[in-house]
Each structure stands twice: as structure tokens, then as C-alpha cells.
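Private note to self, pasted from the team thread so I don't lose it. C-alpha cells:
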């Protein structure tokens, strides 16, 4: 029996971070847009793989591939509720990650039944790079907490949503990507700002967290001397 999901009348939102993400296969970006439209109704998307497969005329396995790519690249998060005492899925909730449509914190997802698919994906792919897998296992709630800690210390709080998306993608690359590392970089950056406060203004948070923390700032009082050329590619930032 075909699942009955009312087609949303809201606009779909596909930000540049999704449109130009070369890691997304097929029509993943269009699927993301459909998810944003459904999220506008209740704050989360509840549609099944069958619904999306019928919508785009593809196999459910293709939808699963697109969803996994969106999740791994930090654009969505997924929570699954199983029927009590079984591994049979009762409900699934898809949410837009921070930086897209705001998450609905009142979504009816009991903590004792919730399982984040990130950890499932990590288990399935346990033959891949161990550091990358371990980093992907970090719960979203922990990443949000860690980000808030360093965000509070950052001097120019603009572009928080984008900053978090960049931070999350960076953290998921390796277990060596830690807040301790970022705080060391931030301390040095603050020193640079102080030394050059007569002409230099801190970067927007969205910019600094997008790999600019790797810039080499010269800590001298010689004015505007700094080797802080921005990385040219995403690989330079997160390689």
C-alpha cells in the first residue's frame, strides 16, 4: 500500500553548502530540498524511503544512499525509534542540521528508544579508516555541546549556523580534530587580533570555522604582517 504523505506546499530550501557539495551523489540535493519542505510543517521529516523512492522514481536503496551522503556530510541528522523489544523500525525522524531550518527541540522522540544512524553507519563501515570512523561515532548532541564551548570564546559571533556545519564536518574527519586543538588556534588568533587591533577586525565566525583557523598568524607588533592566505580548496581545509 502506498504511503500517504501530503505533498508540502512550502518552498524547498537548498543552501549553497548543499548545492555545491561535490560529495553528494545523484539528486541528493533535491532530496534535501524536499526534506526542508516537510520539516517546515512539523519541524522534522517523517516520510519513509518508499515515499521518496516513489517521488523520484528510483529504488529505495538509491534513497538510502542519498540520505546517507547527506548525513555523512553534515546536512541532516536521522533518529530511529524501534518497536519495543525489537529491531523493527516504528518511526524515523529526519532533521535539518544547524544552519538550515531550525531543529524542533520538542519532536516526540523518547530518549530510551532513540538511536542515531551515524553510529549505525560507523559500525557498518568499521573496515574504513579507524580515526574517521571513531570521529563519526561522536553523537550530535556532544558536537553541539563542544561547539558551544568554543563558540562562546570566539570574538565575532556572526554566521553561527554555518560555523557549526563547518565545525561538525571538520570534527568528523578525525579523532585528532579536537576542541583542544581549536582553542590553541583561537588563543593565537586572539593574540594576533590584539596586536593588530588598530586595523584588523576578527573574521566572521562562519569564515574562521571554515578552515581559517589553520592560518599562520605572525605574532609581532609590526602592523599588518601575517601569512594568512586562505586555503584554496575544501581539501586544504579538511585534508
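Design output:
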Amino acid at each position: 500500500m502506498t504511503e500517504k504523505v501530503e505533498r508540502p506546499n512550502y518552498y524547498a530550501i537548498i543552501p549553497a553548502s548543499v548545492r555545491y557539495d561535490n560529495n553528494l551523489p545523484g539528486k541528493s540535493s533535491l532530496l534535501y530540498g524536499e526534506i526542508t519542505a516537510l520539516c517546515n510543517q512539523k519541524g522534522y521529516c517523517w516520510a519513509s524511503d518508499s515515499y521518496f523512492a516513489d517521488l523520484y522514481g528510483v529504488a529505495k536503496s538509491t534513497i538510502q544512499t542519498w540520505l546517507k551522503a547527506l548525513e555523512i556530510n553534515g546536512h541532516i541528522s536521522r533518529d530511529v525509534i524501534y518497536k519495543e523489544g525489537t529491531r523493527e523500525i516504528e518511526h524515523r525522524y529526519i532533521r535539518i542540521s544547524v544552519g538550515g531550518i531550525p531543529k524542533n527541540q520538542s519532536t516526540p522522540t523518547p530518549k530510551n528508544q532513540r538511536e542515531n544512524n551515524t553510529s549505525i553507519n560507523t559500525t557498518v563501515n568499521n573496515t574504513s579508516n579507524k580515526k574517521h570512523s571513531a570521529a563519526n561515532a561522536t553523537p550530535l548532541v556532544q558536537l553541539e555541546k563542544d561547539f558551544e564551548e568554543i563558540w562562546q570564546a570566539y570574538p565575532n559571533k556572526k554566521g553561527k549556523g554555518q560555523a557549526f556545519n563547518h565545525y561538525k564536518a571538520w570534527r568528523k574527519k578525525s579523532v585528532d580534530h579536537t576542541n583542544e586543538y581549536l582553542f590553541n588556534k583561537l588563543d593565537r588568533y586572539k593574540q594576533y587580533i590584539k596586536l593588530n587591533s588598530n586595523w584588523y577586525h576578527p573574521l566572521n565566525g562562519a569564515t574562521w570555522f571554515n578552515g581559517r583557523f589553520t592560518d599562520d598568524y605572525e605574532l609581532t607588533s609590526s602592523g599588518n604582517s601575517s601569512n594568512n592566505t586562505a586555503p584554496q580548496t575544501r581539501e586544504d581545509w579538511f585534508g
